[in-house]
Design a protein that fits this description.
Radius of gyration of chain C: 19 Å
Helix content of chain B: 25-40%
CATH architecture of chain C: 3-Layer(aba) Sandwich
Oligomer: heterotrimer
Structural class of chain B: alpha/beta
Number of strands of chain B: 10
Chains: A mainly alpha (331), B alpha/beta (281), C alpha/beta (266)
Largest sheet of chain B: 6 strands, mixed
CATH class of chain C: Alpha Beta
Number of helices of chain B: 10
Helix content of chain C: 40-55%
Distance between the termini of chain B: 48 Å
Number of domains of chain C: 1
Order of helices and strands of chain B: EEEHEEHEHHHEHEHEEHHH
Largest sheet of chain C: 6 strands, mixed
CATH class of one domain in chain B: Alpha Beta
CATH superfamily of chain C: P-loop containing nucleotide triphosphate hydrolases
Largest interface: A-C, 34 and 40 residues
Strand order of the largest sheet of chain B: 6-7-8-3-9-10
């Protein structure tokens, strides 16, 4: 019942955990930019750099002692998008500078369309029983395309097209894939090894240059902190209100649009009412405890940038600089 | 009919842990005429137990039969209608109000169960009358009345559904003494006039003592006592239940000790006074 | 310690929520302000901490007459714990919440860590410093709120219906804490409540009805006014009510003594 944890922080003692959050965030940003700067080409340096960055992320994961499985699980919600992007890149790239891997004529005919529909239905019915669902999904997609290439099934043809997989397409798709995977791994590492309060502090520090143009950074940070504090509470309250409304006959399983609107309103309004009352009470409580908007205040959490942190940020800067130089001169 | 619990357990499964909220519960609640108080320390499983009564929760093992429907049901089965038969009022029910006007909010329940606008209005007016919400307030916004009145509107919203069994989770929490008395008298009236079964979760042993006929005591997820209130307070293991004695009984025990007045359990202030007056005649 | 003179307040031009209230509270006293919901008692609490500005009258705290300019100084002397445990828990963890007031006072980090630990121990929450609020019970959250106020080391603590939303266990924890704070640390405590059993533990009572002070005195005296209390939607605790009934009926002395003894044991 009280199992909601804000963020995904997993407790640990690795050097990644102990890093100053400001340095962690800035280094992450540098690394992310570096990853995006790797050009997509078959140039061995480009390929090498990409693979290096992937390996680098995996090494970071290992040293953080966060199980790799957990980190890769962050990819799950993106599986659909990843596969889609991968295949789009694969098929649309027609440049033949790297050779052609596959060149067939695919047919959408009565038979093949029926088989495709059958495959999709089969997938949806059996997906819950299959352990490696992502692999199963990819195989199903591959099968859908493979079926279309079988000439013998081309009865009552609707449409035929050239299904070409070129080396360039494969290259581009792989690069994209690896890029996304690396980005996910790196950002997951940040959220797994840094508590929400520390992330908040890091963001506040990052935003502090904005103070020069009169952006109220401390106030934004306080709002962020309060939001984080209240998310689990609000989730619990939403659940309670759902139960109360269900007890009055609201069927949350009903999916008709009209019903859905009523369901949402019956949840939204009470949550709004609770939140407005909360805002008023909080304002009173904060003021009574001496909080004055915009006034300077100290912080109980202290952060010191250690030698190790300087080392890491220097590395990140070097990597990025190196990448920029490489782009200009070599790649 | 009514509600039957057969070997019911409910385990909450978290990401890395599980929590046994209630275990091996066997209970029968009649569809008519009962006035039951459910008591027990915080975390003893009372809330989990009552949420099975209107199918908000289903057992993770065992079965609950609610007015002839056996739970758990297969996944897509419709169990919504059970919530009309067993009306559940949560703690701080005023948080469920959301409609534009008070009367509309009270009508919300009946309309969800497919009552016509006319029927829903009729039921809503009856319910509003029962809880003491005057007609002058019908068109008011439910957010412009006092907290106590909001709670009455929320209770009316459940009563308007005309449930056969009324379940209440600490209905008097946060109310001032007058509010508390009015609410409890209201439930007593509903119980007596319509012979409705009322199930009440409460921590207030004086309320239990004055209004309940049958008491279910929960401890660490188990039902450790289920019987008449007269039996509970004389129970040899009463100390293990971690409950307080109701005030009239505490007074009588004290008077028995200090003045030797024979101990004959009384369950309300009124009865206590009557007993003492009779004794001193 | 606190003097309230002819205090009146209304939210809008319509109804006065407080009408000409005057009362005094001595240093080290534990007083309770009783009243029905809507009697003006919570408004009084907010006025005492300067969250509202009185329309008429004045409030003098430890010699300082409250005005809109010296609220900072007033709040160094008066702290308040509100009713809703969730709506005053500001920090992401217990430790951060207790520190909140100290951060506002610009205390340095090391001193804050010491004070947070010290006052967490006073309320028995020292093992929960890294806990987030949604893992805590209502009683625990209110204890943390109290710790946060204690850490600011004010002389006067107001508890505005701080136990109304708690179960008996939580209420008990807070009551025991208040008893200790009043006796051992000589804090001046003002409890705002409609729970007469709770109020009966304090030194003096003030009863508000529809914005007016209708009754004040020590619990024994106030609880005799059964009809007046009933007209304010308040109810004397059962034991005392039984006692009052038999006192009026001139029952045998032995019975009255025994009933009185029962009351004092509570």
């Amino acid at each position: 019942m009280n199992n909601i944890t804000i963020g995904q922080y997993i407790h640990g003692h690795s050097w990644l955990h102990k890093m100053d959050p400001r340095i962690k965030i800035i280094s992450l940003i540098f690394l992310l930019v570096t990853v995006f700067l790797v050009p997509i080409s078959s140039n061995p340096y480009a390929v090498g750099t990409m693979l290096f960055l992937v390996l680098f992320s995996l090494t970071l994961t290992k040293s953080s002692k966060i199980p790799l499985g957990k980190v890769l699980r962050g990819l799950r919600p993106l599986v659909f998008l990843l596969t889609f992007t991968f295949f789009i890149q694969l098929f649309y790239e027609r440049g033949t500078q790297y050779g052609t891997i596959l060149d067939t004529k695919n047919h959408l005919s009565l038979i093949t369309v029926l088989i495709i529909v059958g495959l999709i239905v089969l997938y949806n019915l059996t997906k819950k029983r299959i352990p490696f669902r992502i692999l199963y999904f990819i195989l199903t997609v591959a099968a859908i395309f493979a079926i279309q290439s079988i000439n013998a099934l081309n009865i009552v043809n609707f449409y035929s097209y050239d299904f070409i997989i070129t080396g360039e397409g494969l290259l581009k798709a792989s690069f994209l894939f690896l890029r996304i995977v690396t980005v996910i791994i790196l950002t997951s590492l940040l959220t797994f090894t840094t508590t929400t309060t520390d992330i908040n502090f890091g963001m506040e520090a990052l935003m502090s240059p904005l103070k020069l143009i009169k952006v109220p950074v401390e106030i934004i940070a306080m709002m962020l902190s309060l939001t984080l504090r209240y998310i689990p509470t609000l989730l619990e309250e939403t659940e309670k209100i759902m139960k109360a409304q269900a007890s009055r006959g609201v069927d949350f399983n009903e999916s008709k649009l009209k019903e859905k609107i009523v369901q949402i309103i019956s949840l939204l309004i009470p949550i709004f009412v609770i939140s407005f009352k909360r805002a008023e009470d909080l304002g009173n409580a904060m003021e009574a405890r001496g909080y004055i908007v915009g006034q300077k205040r100290t912080r109980i959490d202290q952060f010191k940038i250690s030698v190790g942190d300087y080392f890491i940020i220097s590395m990140a800067v070097l990597l990025l600089a190196g990448m920029i130089l490489a782009r200009i001169y070599v790649l | 009919m009514g509600i039957q619990f057969k070997n019911v357990s409910h385990t909450y499964k978290g990401i890395q842990s599980k929590y046994d909220a209630i275990m091996d519960v066997n209970l029968n609640i009649d569809g008519k005429g009962e006035f039951i108080a459910i008591v027990g320390h915080t975390g003893s499983g009372k809330s989990t137990l009552v949420q099975h009564m209107n199918a908000l929760l289903v057992p993770t093992s065992g079965t609950v039969e609610v007015f002839n429907t056996v739970l758990p049901q297969p996944k897509k089965a419709k169990i919504n209608h059970l919530r009309q038969k067993v009306g559940l009022v949560f703690q701080f029910p005023e948080y469920q109000l959301f409609e534009e006007t008070i009367i509309k909010d009270i009508m919300f329940g009946p309309k969800n169960f497919k009552d016509s606008e006319e029927d829903a209005l009729k039921k809503a007016k009856t319910a509003a009358n029962l809880v003491g919400i005057p007609e002058s307030l019908y068109e008011q916004s439910p957010f412009r009345i006092s907290g106590g009145q909001m709670r009455r509107v929320a209770v009316a919203g459940i009563l308007a559904m005309e449930p056969k069994i009324l379940v209440l989770d600490e209905p008097t929490r946060g109310l001032d003494p007058k509010g508390r008395n009015e609410f409890m008298d209201m439930f007593k009236k509903i119980h007596e006039e319509e012979n409705k079964t009322i199930v009440l979760i409460t921590h207030d042993m004086d309320i239990v003592s004055e209004y309940a006929k049958r008491i279910i005591v929960m401890k660490d997820g188990y039902v450790v006592f289920d019987g008449k209130k007269e039996e509970l307070f004389e129970h040899p293991n009463f100390i293990d239940f971690h409950l307080d004695f109701p005030t009239p009984i505490k007074i009588l025990k004290h008077l028995n000790q200090t003045l030797g007045i024979p101990y004959v359990p009384q369950y309300s202030e009124r009865d206590l006074i009557k007993y003492l007056e009779a004794f001193y005649e | 310690m606190i003097e309230i003179k002819n205090l009146s307040f209304s939210y809008s031009s319509n109804q006065k929520v407080l009408k000409n209230v005057s009362l005094d509270i001595k240093r080290g006293e534990w007083v309770s302000v009783l009243g029905h919901n809507g009697s003006g008692k919570s408004t009084l609490a907010k006025l005492l901490i300067g969250l509202l500005e009185a329309n008429e009258g004045e409030i003098i705290v430890d010699g300082l007459t409250m005005n809109m300019k010296n609220l900072g100084d007033i709040r160094k002397k008066v702290g308040i714990v509100f009713q809703n445990p969730d709506n005053q828990f500001i920090g992401v963890t217990v430790r951060h919440d207790i520190a909140f007031g100290l951060e506002n006072q610009m205390m340095d980090s090391k001193e804050m860590e010491e004070k947070v630990l010290e006052y967490a121990k006073v309320v028995s929450m020292e093992n929960f410093l890294e806990h987030a609020p949604h893992h805590l019970s209502g009683g625990q959250k209110q204890r943390v709120a109290l710790a946060g106020i204690l850490a600011m080391e004010q002389d006067i603590i107001i508890l505005d219906e701080a136990t109304s939303m708690l179960d008996p266990q939580g209420t008990n924890e807070i009551v025991e804490l208040i008893k200790r704070l009043n006796k051992e640390r000589n804090k001046t405590v003002i409890t705002i409540t409609h729970d007469l059993a709770f109020a009966g533990l304090s030194d003096r009572l003030f009863v508000l009805k529809q914005g007016e002070l209708i009754l004040q005195g020590i619990p024994q005296e106030v609880f005799k006014e059964v009809d007046l209390l009933k007209s304010s939607n308040l109810e004397v605790p059962q034991a005392l009510s039984v006692y009052n009934h038999f006192k009026n009926k001139k029952a045998p002395k032995a019975l009255l003594e025994a009933l009185w003894e029962f009351n004092s044991k509570m």
